[in-house]
Fold these 4 entries.
Entry 1:
Amino acid sequence: MINVIGLGYIGLPTALMFASHGVEVVGTDYNKELVDTLNHGHTTFEEDGLDELFAEAVKCGIKFSAEYAKTDMYIVAVATPYDKKSKKIDAGYVVAAVKNVMEVCPKGATVVIESTVSPGTIDRFVRPVIEEKGFVIGEDINIVHAPERIIPGNMVYELRHNSRTIGADDPEIGEKVKNCYASFCQGEIVVTDIRTAEMTKVVENTFRDINIAFANELLKICRSDNMDVYEIIRIANKHPRVNILSPGPGVGGHCISVDPWFLVGDYPSLANLIKQARTINDSMPEFVLNRIHEIMKEKGIKDVKKVGLYGLTYKENVDDTRESPTLQMLECMERHLAFGVRVYDPYVKKDITENQYHDFDEFLNDVDMVVILVGHDEIRNNMDKLKGKIVLDTRNICNPDGVYRL
Ligand code: SAJ
């Protein structure tokens, strides 16, 4: 039996995947409301294929509880935020989960940490919790790090098909855990040590952050001298060894915009390029704001209430708003005391900001200018509705004629 701790964006699909492949699973979360929702037969976020996977897992007998189970394998998939000031990881949730596991687990149990952690976190924070309890690591308790790689929007497919990394002190334990994951994962599963697995995960997201920052810096250079960055990237990418990513309004989500800070926090004098990339990507929401002001001036729009922001999530076709560029922009606007902008996102049903609309047509009726911040399918399939509006397209999804771009 596996006890999956933390039923969020990673823990829930992982628990469902194990369960629907014949493994006995108890999913645990301290949030009782979330556990109740799952026990009443509802998933807690939108994701392609998640409801089907949920139904299958329920049929196979998955259980959800606020209590930890007594079993021989735990998978910890709780959040790992970072301290905004020190840029260091806040391992509090991981530590609390492992402490709770230590209260119930029998000797011989394996504790797998799936949460993304900065290199060295398991040595610094997790091992002491186990040792404090009087357990000898490697004899009484085994510890493994198995970071995930799935991308919101394509999680279910990627859980099955991505390659994975398993970091373990003891290669034999690594192989054992690898075999568990192989119950559903068809990708290659590489076994290595814990420190390497920790670092690899953070490096992957940092690689992407740096490459997005390069695209964003190019955009700024091109904007300053009236060159078409999208055309330049399109042509450059025809080179067999060039693959420039897409510039945009910034980097959101709980991974790429967070993990590089772990390296900056731990190696402040060495992580220079990484820090610069983070700074560039974090500057993009303000860059969009300046662009909005330029266009408002050019078009004679005086009232910010006539401006509508399309999209609140951090990327297209997901309902996740964590660290989203739009929210970063709204914060920035508040600092500039520019209140009143209208906002709409088809995926965000709850009111999370002021002047938020829940109907696309109503939103369009009330604004003269639409700033496309997220390229949801809804807007891609309804471009004709933007006729007559002033459009700033930050995602390069519109036909460029007659629209403004970043
Ligand atoms: N973005 C751009 N330009 C691009 C690509 C992305 O501006 O060319 C922006 C997106 O709009 C979004 C942000 O970057 O705001 C991140 O989106 P994403 O789709 O690139 O990645 P995430 O955060 O959804 O998922 C990432 C993935 N990591 C990598 O691609 C290296 C995923 O595989 C990881 O599992 C996930 O982080 C994680 O949990 O760490």
Note: The chain has 14 helices and 14 strands.
Entry 2:
Amino acid sequence: MKFEYLNPTRLVFGAGSLSRLGEMAGTYGKRALLVTGGGSVKRSGTFERARNSLADAGITVFECEGVEPNPRISSVKRGAATARDNACDLIVALGGGSVMDASKVIAAAVLYDGDPWDMIHHGQPQPHVPTEALPLITVPTLAATGSEMNCGAVISNAETREKSFVQAECLYPKVALLDPELTVTVPKDQTAYGVCDLITHITESYFNGTGDTPIQDRFAEGVILTAMEYGPKAIADGNDLNARAQVQWAATVALNGWLSAGSGSAGYPVHMIEHTVSAFHDITHAAGLAIINPAWMRFAAKSNTAKFVQFAQRIFGLDAKGSDDLDCASAGIDRFEAFLKSIGCPTRLSELGLDDRLIETYAKETLRIVHDENGLLPGRPAMSEADVVGVLRAAL
Ligand code: NZQ
Ligand code: ZN
């Protein structure tokens, strides 16, 4: 095993920690752009508390509201213009993954003279990977993406029908302030999608890794089991603060690099395919994942059977005849899909009103944006266009 791990984000976790926002922010700036979504933080009173905490610390607040789910590059440009016009020296993201992702790219766009869409990998020969950004503080109000403590962002372009990512060290937030109390107002469906998203982040590195990574496997299985135990509790009773806290911590650790460090993960094929479907239909990210992941698992289990048998045994306690027991592997996938259904996630494209008309286009687009030197979608196994089409057909 050879690997390097860096995560420079300071993590502050616990109910009530929103009150420390001003104290944290004061270290980094005096003029903050406070970025929010479609209004949930205003309805819940979270926005006012955040603004007051910043004001009490002597920080002047400027606002960028209205970042949409599957955040658009147009919102990034609007936010960057506001930050520039007001000489902001700090960005504060208060919202879900969409707000946090938009905030990251705003933080870099403020210091970049070109078009911020250059930063997003959308198949251009040489994306502009940013090397500098304003300091960013993330305050997630929804447990799902892990964006609060990683250096990635996913942005959509409605005009070109593309949705893709940027990853750069300068995009790590300075501070991630995690207050599970802020998530109690998240509705049941978004809570379930968050659970699905975080588990999919883990399964992507678990199943696409090199194997022979016993510590990472046990970490991954522990977080999956915890999410499967506390996720349904948070969905059943949104005010169950302990369940909210467990789910929020699970979401953060699922994608802050710790679980995947050293796993030799070859890629995020389920995410890459989902991003294309989202780009065409603006579907909720994890609704797409709940549909594509089980179909992808059935495809990958044929060649990586032993890992799927391990998943079936350790997550669902199933018995296997041996590490090549494909029936056991398949039963584990069936149980996983049943779990997703039980928490209210869709598991077929038809449930979102999608049919097979654009399946070839989704596959082509996915591979146009992300491919290895052989033109395949990275993963284990790497996927051809026909493989992607096969997985999507199985998900109809
Ligand atoms: O916009 P508002 O009014 O705030 O409402 C949001 C939105 O409608 C609502 N919400 C958020 N917090 C709430 C709340 N409602 C009530 N109470 C609260 N406390 O939830 C809805 C969904 O919000 P959104 O931010 O879109 O959800 P999520 O956190 O799932 O983020 C999804 C985005 O993140 C990207 C996805 O592709 C998608 O664009 N991802 C980012 C990643 C990253 N940066 O590492 C990794 C992920 O795999 C993912 O791709
Ligand atoms: Zn995701």
Note: DSSP finds 14 helices and eight strands in the chain.
Entry 3:
Amino acid sequence: MTTPFENNPICHLLGIRYPIFLGGMAHVSRAPLVAAVSAAGGLGIIGSGGMPPDVLIEQIRDVRTRTDRPFGVNLMLLDPNIEAQLEVVLRERVTMVTTGAGNPAPYIPKLREAGIKVFPVVPAVSLARRMERAGADGVIAEGTESGGHVGEVTTIVLVPQVVDAVNIPVIAAGGIADGRGLAAALVLGARGVQMGTRFLASVEAPAHENFKTAILKANERSTLVTGRSINAPVRTLANKMSKQFALFEKEGRPREEFEVLAVGGLRRAVYDGDTETGSLMAGQISGMIDKIEPVKEIIDEMVATAAKLLPEEML
Ligand code: TUI
């Protein structure tokens, strides 16, 4: 019997043991969590959203003091510092970059020239095709079950259609939080998974305990999507702020009136543990998460379960 994922193309390409990515969550996917995921055999990914470029350099170097394993950086394409963040990842030569909330085609040539692998997050088949033509090494097909900025299509519908549309490897994201989810993603033709919410509710995640506890308390209907009316759909746990936001949207109030509610919301959730007015970005799979566990235990369970459920050639 061979080791699970020994012949997995994502593991080969990136030099990792298991094809399990940490979602590059702004303010949460920082050095302690990123290094823990990489050290456990997965791929840690720094969330650079909202990060000044000098802090991004610090975070990259901090991860390197904690582990020798590969890791990546997520570039959130709506960030006003995006050009400076790009320069940092080019200079620091991280293993790989993921992108979110936009079309990264203009950045792909420079990244590839620097030997950095590129995995854009795609919410639809058409963007996956464009990314393959633009030179992406793989795509992360993210379903609307995810937390944060979301598309409209579910993971179970999106993943096989992206798999059929492109010849590069596909990573599945959205609604995955255990070994069953990993196995299901592989059955759909994905070669790995990315998880945010499950790692947010881990021991090593540098998020306020109140935020983690809110995930434990959630059920499968505890999230909602706000911001569709302003083309910035974001899934969060329902609370005072998100319900107010949804109501103002429904009433057709001018965007200035409700946008102010969300400003600074993610910081309030992650750093202050403000569960009333914070933006508690989390996925629908929150309902399944009932324990804060160390990253290594989360990953080991996933690998063991998927290896039991699937034939060797699928891993
Ligand atoms: O990016 C995410 N998740 C995020 S980003 C974020 S910060 C934020 N806060 C408020 C408003 C907007 C963003 C919080 N969570 N996930 C990856 C992702 N990318 N999901 C969906 C997309 C996406 C959407 C449209 C990717 C590309 C895209 O393309 C549009 C185009 O230009 O074709």
Note: Residues 179 and 302 are 4 Å apart (CA to CA).
Entry 4:
Amino acid sequence: MPVVGIDDLAIYIPKLYLDYKDFAEARGIDPQKLEYGIGIKKMAITDTNQDSACMASNACLKLMQRNHLHPQDIGRVYVATESSLDESKAMNSFVVGMLEQIYGEGSFEHAGGIECKFACVSGSYALYDNANWIRAEENNGKAAVVIVSDIAKYDMGSTGEYTQGAGAVALLVKEKPRLMAFDQKVASTTIKNEYDFYRPFGKETPLVNGSYSNLLYLISVRKAFDAYKEKAIKSGLIKLKDGESITDHIDFFAVHLPYRKMGEKALAYLLRHEWRHLPRWKHVIKEIGTTEPQPKDARGTIESILADTQFMKADEQFRRAFMQTSFYDEVYEKKMATSLEASAIIGNLYTASMYMGLRSLLEFEFKKGTELAGKRVGFGSYGSGSSAMVFSGVIESEYKQVVSKMDLDEDVGPRQKLSMEEYERLHRNERAFTDSVVRAHKEFVLVKLGGITADKAGFREYDYVS
Ligand code: COA
């Protein structure tokens, strides 16, 4: 079976941001809560003439230009998003339209693709499906591009408001990738009908049960990880010796990142689950000084566990204490910390958040001088509603060709800080899309919205501003 994976990835981040100190002052929140409790310093905000389709196109164009790709080299363009623009017309059709302004009308006609939706996890399904399209040799020698693009926008004054952000990541999926080859026969999923986070038709911001969504994320990824572990052992990918945990065989973790702190908590949850039956756990407990609390009903539902306030409080205390141990710290510093850096200066990217985490990990580990070839990255992807996907990949020996050129500061570029007043006007959609805050430069923007006649209602037109 051909070796398939990610050859390169390019990012696009809008040029406006909101500073956490301004935000904290305006909302009467301790800035330390945002900086340490959530882990956010800057939230990327879209301008009036930007949407998830033009961010997706901007990321894809960067990817194509950097790799000297022509549309003939690409057989599939997928967009995974939860910031959909139309109930029927797929976002990748807008993207192809924009790219054809550069490469010529009809230049992508031979290709295919769809828009994928499942909250923040759909990009992972899109990657998996496209990797299999190549493995099945249906690709006629062509690569696939999977773009994850989203605008995380929450109600003003809600607790979600400090977990906003916007941006896109375009991933080049091909045979013999330079960056990372996906491990085969181990990708594992869970699915369940849930209402932890959802956005009914016509509503711009989601309805969120914050604490429920956090716990559901942890439990769903843990269940998918259990299934991954079973497959990895059965297939011989990972051989566990006595006293070992599967987490010992994963060199880096990249997980869904609605906000930086959630990544730290996800790692803590996973390590507790994987280690509590191993000999090392008694050393962990000794360092913490208390045993792990148990819920009244260990086989209960998420609701019953959340309602068990005594347990929840004790468990939160235990989780915090565990995160202070040398055992957690060693794994966190070595295997996760670098993947969280981008999140703190960009914010939530929904579908793109985990892939921005991967980008952050690669760049900052390389800058630290870590040798990455042969290292395994374990992914924990979660989408509300709800589904989780756990999979892994190994960094290829040619990775330096790609990673040595990564520069987050340069890729994010100069950004304009918004005042709270400007931000709130943008949030309320009070500025016309023609009245952008910054002047676009070398990027696609929205130039026409709707039409005079009813049959043109909902039309969206974009231009490349050189
Ligand atoms: N200094 C430092 N930390 C502080 C603080 C201060 N002054 N005040 C509070 N904090 C910490 C809290 O202790 C908590 O940390 P912990 O998680 O380690 O306990 C953290 O800040 C968050 O505060 P908390 O009050 O628990 O949560 P919140 O009401 O602010 O809501 C979310 C947080 C994530 C639930 C909310 O932002 C949300 O609903 N987001 C959208 C949904 C989402 O992202 N879901 C994720 C799964 S997909």
Note: The pocket of coenzyme A is lined by residues 30, 32-33, 36-38, 159-160, 163, 197, 208, 210-211, 213-214, 217, 258, 261-262, 316, 384 (CB under 6 Å).
